[in-house]
Design brief:
This protein is an alpha+beta fold and 374 residues long. The chain has 2 domains: 76 residues, Gyrase A, domain 2 (2-Layer Sandwich); 283 residues, no CATH class. Helices cover 51% and strands 15% of the residues. The longest helix is centred in the middle third of the chain and has 28 residues. The radius of gyration is 25 Å and the shape is elongated. The termini are far apart.
Length: 374
């Protein structure tokens, strides 16, 4: 054991005493003086899950939070002074944002519908004179909000099953900007993930729940939409492999093609938007859902992969400039996914196979050029 100043030995020795049946200690280091962060390295004497469960309770009594990691060929227990305490959330904020997003998507859907009947300059006067026209936005709003709500509640419900301090979803209304009236929603994790398994389960629950709702609505929306000539100056939605395949199964042809494409009705348009949001969340970067999945599978080996994806987005920005913005955003919020408290928890074969499947879903739903003009 490294020599320690006498003033620091008290807490360090108390912490080390808690490791007697958990870790065969080979080295001790004070990483942050006086004894705020202490590292104990050696070999675990039991499996990582029971080891972390024991240390969590023992260290809590001393006012410390344990982190369990592997560094090279040794296991490391890091004792960090202070306890993880989740900040309470203000539910009224979630409710207000949800209501505002419902109204924003309703307005967006109504504007799209009314805009097909009257000149652009007359859309707002028409809505003001006949507020009942807002109801024409219901099919679009209900479709999109159902997909987004399923996605976020998937995260929330699984998070609560793990007793993780996850917030209710925060919806982001954008009533006067964008094509959908919203920028989606987020769940806030108010404390670090405990282990890789909870990280994985909470991360994949959102996109899988969203897809369960989005895919049937997309099939219904496409089946009730019409194929016709592409109007000049129209905005065209992009194709992912999955979207292209669904259109082929429904219409028996590759679309767009030969000057023809699907004229999406409100349900199809909203479902396509929900599929796009799912795909963006599955980007294997940082703390996006795909980033959760990749880190759960690979640990810190996910970091260079995530950086490679960011570089790929930058390169794709020369094809569709929106990827430049996405690359900047993920760089701001962080490319590296933080490690959970117990970074050694095993994933198991079932979760590993599901994780690979989720990454395949990302490839199938990814849309290289989300929007283009004619």
């Amino acid at each position: 054991m490294d020599s320690l100043p006498m003033a620091f030995e008290g807490n360090v020795q108390k912490l080390r005493a808690q490791l007697s049946d958990v870790l065969s200690v080979q080295d001790v280091k004070v990483l942050e003086a006086p004894d705020r962060v202490v590292s104990f390295s050696g070999q675990l004497l039991r499996d990582s899950e029971s080891a972390y469960a024991a240390l969590r309770e023992r260290f809590r009594a001393l006012g410390y939070t344990p982190l369990l990691q592997r560094q090279g060929d040794v296991e490391v227990v890091i004792a960090q002074q202070g306890l993880v305490v989740a900040r309470p959330s203000q539910v009224w904020i979630n409710v207000v944002l949800f209501a505002a997003t419902v109204l924003a998507t309703l307005l967006t859907g109504a504007v799209n519908e009314v805009g097909q009947r009257v000149p652009e300059a007359m859309i707002l006067p028409a809505l003001l004179q006949g507020p009942i026209l807002l109801l024409t936005g219901l099919p679009f709003s209900l479709t999109l909000m159902s997909i987004l709500l399923a996605h976020e509640m998937g995260h929330y419900i699984v998070g609560r099953r793990y007793n993780a301090p996850v917030s209710l979803p925060y919806f982001i209304p954008m009533p006067f900007f964008g094509l959908f009236g919203t920028m989606g929603a987020v769940i806030v994790q108010r404390a670090p993930f405990e282990d890789r398994r909870s990280l994985f389960d909470i991360g994949v629950a959102g996109p899988l729940a969203g897809l369960v709702v989005a895919l049937p609505l997309l099939v219904y929306g496409l089946a009730t939409s019409k194929v016709g000539p592409i109007p000049p100056g129209s905005l065209m939605e992009g194709n992912s492999i999955l979207y292209l395949a669904i259109k082929y199964l429904i219409f028996g042809k590759i679309l767009p093609g030969h000057g023809l494409d699907v004229s999406l009705n409100p349900v199809a348009w909203a479902a396509w938007g929900g599929l796009l949001v799912t795909s963006l969340n599955l980007l294997p970067i940082g703390q996006l859902d795909g980033g959760h999945t990749l880190y759960a599978l690979l640990g810190k080996r996910a970091w260079p992969v995530a950086l490679g994806v960011v570089l790929l987005l930058l390169a794709m920005g020369f094809v569709w400039q929106g990827w430049f913005l996405w690359a900047v955003l993920v760089l701001i919020f962080g490319v590296r996914h933080p490690a959970p408290l117990n970074d050694l928890s095993p994933m198991g074969l079932k979760r590993t196979l599901v994780g690979i499947g989720v990454l395949v879903l990302f490839v199938l739903t990814f849309t290289p050029i989300p929007f283009s003009g004619v």
